[in-house]
Amino acid sequence: MTPTNAGSVSFMLTDEQQMLQKMAREFTANEIMPVAAEYDEHATFPEEIFQKALELGITNMNIPEAYGGVGATSFEECLVAEEFGYGCTGIGTSITTNGLGALPIILAGNEKQKAYWLGERLMDQAQFVSYGVTEAAAGSNVVGIETRADKRNGSYIINGSKTFITNASHAHFFTIFAKTDPSAGHRGMTCFVVDRDAPGVKVGKKFDKIGQRASDTAEIILEDVEVPAENVIGEVGRGFYLAMAVFDHSRPGVAAAAVGLQRRALDESVKYAKERLAFGVPIYQHQAIGHKIADMAINYEASRLLVWQAAWQVDNGIANPKVPAYAKAFAADMATKAAVDAVQVLGGYGYMKEYPVEKLLRDVKIFQIYEGTSEIQRNIIVRELFR
Question: pTM of whole model > 0.90?
Fold first, then answer.
């Protein structure tokens, strides 16, 4: 897929984009929504759904055509992420996380690395990759990571651990950030590709989560893991800058998933409020309920426009961190509000598992936490506004 109208602004999707959106929407309706509740209950990893999505070209989307992918734009990824988010953000997270794990290689890898890790491993062998930055003592503060990579005899020996890593239990390799020069602060961090089968790599027990339970989250432990120098992604000491670039590229897609959840909350609320009677009329005719749903619709449309703007910026090579921060913070916060309000609209039924809004409420909270908390997004915005 190639960028269309990349230099102009339009709120109308092209024919190709409409086809992609329709395909993702039908895939979500047929493959994700029928099993979402079951996968959530049993914390089932959706490997079969991933394989079907891979065959259609709606996962691994950002891998360039030269390495077997479709070379989708960020905007196209966001169209798909919204549809997946509508069906189940847990399943959606699992089947799109390769895009995050692959980003360091896409952005900074050399041709040999791209051909092997993107082409052979992710596309030809349909493997999984996880992105390893977060640590127990370093979440929002990326510079605070303690994982070390010490150069020895032409290789690097990595020691440390990563936590809350999506798809870690199923990943075949990881893009890991470690300190190669702890005294250099943010200039002492480097990115490596680490194979799951390398001696010293262990994956801990997966976490039992309140929501997005179909998404696997676990710890990675690295004990004297020897990594060849050829596995360094980008330049030694430039890992922090690479991590920041990854966030600028990944946040629009995460925000788009939150937008999808918002739309689901809105649709479920409209459906229920038309059918449920109170005091002789459908409850949407009571202003307290009608206005709540109107606000959901306003916030959904505004969130989606911010996501589209952030994705447009990425596709046009514009580095302006506050725009993806706008999108991520607003979409996450408004999705959370939408889920809370949807439960309120449905009243007691909204609190019951037989209705989908209960799951939306559990799934949504993580959007204000992962890929940079809502507080961190605001810190970025303040920094950029006062730079």
Answer: yes
